[in-house]
Amino acid sequence: MTTGKALWLGLACIVLSQPLYGQDQSPAILKEYDQAIDRVAERAMESVVKIEVTGYGVPENDKDQGQQQPQTLERQRSIGSGVIVDSDGYIITNNHVIAGAMRIRVIIAPATVELVSGNTRLNNPQRVYEAKLIGSTRYADLALIKIEEKGLPYIPLPEQFHFRLGQTVVAIGAPEGLDHTVTKGIISAVGRQPEVDRPMVYVQTDAPINPGNSGGPLIDRDGNLVGINTFIVTSGGGSEGLGFAIPEPIVRFVYNELKEHGIVPNVTIGAHAQSITPALAAGLKLPQDWGVIISDVDAGGPAAAAGLHPRDIVTTMDHLRVDSLPKYTAFLYVHKRNTPIRMEVLRDGKPLTLAVTPAAAPPLVDNLSDLINPKRDLIASLGIFVIDLKHSAVGAMLNLRSDTGVLVAGLLGGEPATAADLAVGDVIRAINGQPLNDSQQLRQILAGLKPGDAVVLEVERQAVLQYVAFEME
Prior knowledge:
Elements: H1 3-17, H2 26-45, E1 48-57, E2 72-86, E3 90-93, H3 95-98, E4 101-108, E5 127-130, E6 132-137, E7 142-146, E8 168-173, E9 181-192, E10 202-205, E11 217-220, E12 225-232, E13 243-247, H4 248-261, E14 267-268, E15 271-275, H5 278-284, E16 292-297, H6 302-306, E17 313-317, E18 320-321, H7 325-334, E19 341-347, E20 350-356, E21 359-360, H8 374-377, E22 378-379, E23 384-388, H9 394-398, E24 406-412, E25 427-431, E26 434-435, H10 439-447, E27 454-461, E28 464-471
Parallel strand pairs: 2-24
Antiparallel strand pairs: 1-2, 1-4, 2-3, 3-7, 4-5, 6-7, 8-9, 8-11, 9-10, 10-13, 11-12, 12-13, 14-21, 15-16, 16-17, 17-18, 17-19, 19-20, 22-23, 23-24, 24-25, 25-26, 25-27, 27-28
């Protein structure tokens, strides 16, 4: 054998004897990765619940109608998810999961996490609880409910949080009612703000999320709560890898407010901000081409009283750096109520510190049906849901002629007991000539009427008073 041929065979033997790159390590790495995710998901699933709601809601084909359009509510059953955040039975979910609820049930069941030949239990016993609504906020789309149980496994809401773009996350919930469904993905973006005018910032993920996942947790690789899964962007109705979760800091803030007060008060500083772009910076000769600038200040508002001016550049809020509009709006939302915001700004290139105390803001309502509590507001005999105007800010919001009477906020789907020609937005001022103070008085008068009795309602409709006459049936 020649020297060259021997050298070639020797090299070939060496090459063939070596494993492919990483071949002896990859299976072990993948196994460790899978086991780590398994442990995180298995531990988190103990704190995830399925929520069944019976109540009244707007039909899907009516949800795009405006506030002054006829709005019918129909009996509905829906399914969502929730996460236990306190061992005493406090559960966070989405507001849209429990909106219009007459009854909320929470289902807790152990999950099957492994299939083993001859030793796998698929029929896991369930514990079903009646839940009480502690409070909710449509603005953040979060709700707090409670079940009467102690010592439950839970996912805490710590002050310190950390998550970043690209890290692995797990979504857990009950899509289409299939409880303990686990999907995996990454954080696709950490500061999405779909609506500039709303201080809601979302974590975007490609972990598959479908109807029924709403209210369930998005968990990081350490088992910490990243956020509450809330909505998806889809053209076909299913997951397309565009899921959005409410971040943990907002969840924690809302949880504390709802647990303590039952509501999250709306506040405003009476100022309007927008993002600084390179073009805007060049045109106004600003010292920076990024960040947040005040574009307008409401006369007589908290910002004006504190000395905030248009063209001020916001640099910090409560000692935290503000470098984007999502940060600015999020900081406003989670700021502790009834305390001043320490705001540092640049004015004509010079630093300035201001103390702005937010003021209460009127509730923002996209639709009158958002204000309905079915247990309290249904008048079944007329097929309507009503809201008392007395001691309510709704009248001022709708620019009504007075603040007395009851407002028709929704219509009951199907045939009502009495065919009264009422519409959403009507205000019932009097019945058979008797002025109305509240809905309880209306119920008492209706209860005293017999079939065939004539009823005349004095109604304010689009700022005009008119009569609605009918007979009880």
